[in-house]
């Protein structure tokens, strides 16, 4: 059975409004007479967004102490659904909590090798030592992979941040191998991330490749590369799409994204894989949408189709 998990935290983002993403999708569903939110059961994960109004005392990892609480909520929710043989279909605010999703998947699947497919404009490989912003939505993969990247350090990190950071990394007993991580559409990175991508040999299917070969073919190649993995998780950040075609209704839009047609092909092919055990959509932000609710209106039919394909094979 497919289970919706609604995560409305935006503690990890640098701009406000990602917590409204799930609501924006529901508005889009209502206005289009979609039955998506009545077809599947949903569970709401508690958020700690009230701490957005508290002073920030950890500039290299903003609000990391409160994000730790959110991570535990998401971790247990994802783990619980998988343990009870339900497919977690996560609709999340900012991308930081994807690290907790990954930890929950691993906890529920001990001894299984997890492949991660990251459909995103960003690599999200920063740590408190390297982040130019301190926003933790740019750090989930460094958490999941257990990467500090201290050799590329640009920040002074407070001792209490180091403690919380190690705590986030230890949420998962196993770390994601970088050879089990595939990027699709990543096109906005900083030097410390470029260093990791090159040194670790992380595969990135660039937008130009997706346009040339098509989403279905890129998905085939991605799944082939990860054929040694037992299970797979897909994280779909809506900023992977071209903002000029859709809208700028996401926290960090980047020009030159993947066309919507190719995104649909790509995600549908992943959805059809028997190895897929969890799917996540993040960073819909109606507060930043210059076309009213266009990002949610574009995203909804994409995830409706993905969910339908997954549900049909469960």
Structural account:
By secondary structure, the protein is an alpha/beta fold. The protein has one domain (2-313): Arginase, Chain A (3-Layer(aba) Sandwich), CATH 3.40.800. 39% of the residues lie in helices and 14% in strands. It is built from 11 helices and 8 strands. It has helices at residues 21-31, 36-39, 64-83, 98-108, 140-145, 159-169, 191-200, 207-213, 215-225, 260-271, 294-313, and strands spanning 2-7, 41-45, 87-92, 114-119, 181-184, 203-205, 231-237, 276-282. Strands 2-1-3-8-7-4-5-6 form an 8-stranded parallel sheet, sandwiched between helices. β7 (231-237), α10 and β8 form a beta-alpha-beta unit. The longest helix is centred in the N-terminal third of the chain and has 20 residues, at 64-83. The protein is globular, with a radius of gyration of 18 Å. The termini are close together. The mean pLDDT is 98.
Distance between the termini: 6 Å
Radius of gyration: 18 Å
What would CATH call the architecture?
3-Layer(aba) Sandwich
Global structural class: alpha/beta
Q: CATH homologous superfamily - what is it?
A: Ureohydrolase domain
The global form is globular
Average pLDDT works out at 98
CATH topology: Arginase, Chain A
Biggest β-sheet strands, sense, barrel: 8 strands, parallel
Oligomer: single chain
Range of helix content: 25-40%
Strand order of the largest sheet: 2-1-3-8-7-4-5-6
The helix count comes to: 11
